Amino acid sequence: MPMNPTRARNILPAILGLMLLITWLGSLGRFWWPFDLLAHFRLQYVLGCVAIGVFAWLRRHSRTAACAGASCVWNVWLIVSIPGSGFAPPGAPSAQKPLRVLTFNVLITNPQRKAVVEHILSTDADIVCLIELDQSWRKDLEPLYRKYPQHADGLSFGNFSVACFTRLPMGRFEILDVPTLVVHLEHEGRPLTFIGAHPPRPFGEQNSQERKRHIRELAALLKPMDGEVILACDLNSTPWCEGMRLLMEQSGMAFNSVPPVWVPTWGRDGPLMIPIDHVLVKGGLMVRKREVGPDLGSDHRSVLVEITR
Predict the structure, then answer these.
(1) 55 or 290: which leads in pLDDT
(2) Per the structure, how many domains does the chain have?
(3) Residue 36: which domain range?
(4) Which of 80, 109, 133 is the last residue before a domain boundary?
(5) Structural contact between residues 132 and 106, judged by C-beta atoms closer than 8 angstroms
């Protein structure tokens, strides 16, 4: 039986209003984990709000169009106002050689392992942080072991494993059961602490709580650290979600990035693409360049940054 046209006209604004409400609920992530899950898709919300606004305006639903406009502005503001993104460095540009850092969640079941290793070698990074690999990767990583005399890895954590390869002088390193890899390096005569981490995905209440616990422990580890510190991670958190807010507020870490950090690194071949792979710094460091790598068989893309003081 066909729906009454009058009823259809009444239902349509309600449906559009519900869709717009979702874009606002993502700002309440500190109160309930499903709300924080909604926070990750700000880029998609901008497009959705524009589409809803145009459609509502054409159908003369002025209130819905106004709500869509306000929702679009709100989501754009959250994206462009990420703390430390689009960072403007004070004074003249640094003349020092930048420190090149690559982080890449390679996907434990990736069939393109040779291409992954070739890409890593081509970046000529000073520090390489690889995430989500296991013992079966060890043979494939032999070219990296040869190029980088200093390395540390915790391959026993499976999907949450982290490995570090570097040409910088390395002191001690620690593999914490979070899991987090802490590597003490030396760069241009100064101590440098490098940390690689991979919290769980926030799908489901238990995983969401586990991710929050990991982030709090990571922040507690980072907060008392003096000097120059670099954190490279698949944080499973976008720059505008509750997990990232907790990390930055409680650790003292920041993006300090001249380029924007909202460019997606996960799911780039689909409509749900989001930025969840990050490099954060503190101790007077600044990210002056940021590049997202090609599709190499993983659901993530690599992130290559250049860091200066």
Answers:
(1) 290
(2) 2
(3) 5-80
(4) 80
(5) yes
Provide the edge-to-edge strand list for the sheet that holds 180-187: 170-176, 180-187, 190-197, 228-234, 277-282
The rounded mean pLDDT for the chain is 87
Please enumerate in sequence order all residues whose Cβ is within 8 A of that of 194, keeping only pairs 6 or more positions apart, or say none.
127, 129, 164, 166, 182, 183, 184, 185, 229, 230, 232
pTM, rounded to two decimals: 0.89
Tokens of 304: 């290559």
In a domain, 221, yes or no: yes
Beta pairing partners, 130 = 104, 163
Structure tokens at 104: 């890449």
Residue 42, pLDDT score: 92
Question: How far is residue 46 CA from its own chain's centroid?
Answer: 19
Q: Would you say residue 3 has pLDDT above 50?
A: no
- Residue 153's CATH number: 3.60.10.10
Dihedral, CA atoms, 74, 262, 213, 158, nearest 10 degrees?
150
Q: How deeply is 184 buried, as exposed, middle or buried, from its count of CB atoms within 10 A (0-12, 13-18, 19+)?
A: middle
124 and 54 assigned to the same domain: no
Q: What does the pLDDT look like over 274-287, one tens digit per residue?
A: 999 999 999 999 99
50-59, 139-148, 230-239, 289-298: range with lowest mean pLDDT? 50-59
Distance CA 159, CA 169 (A): 28
Beta-carbon contacts of 14 under 8 Å, excluding residues fewer than 6 positions away, are: none
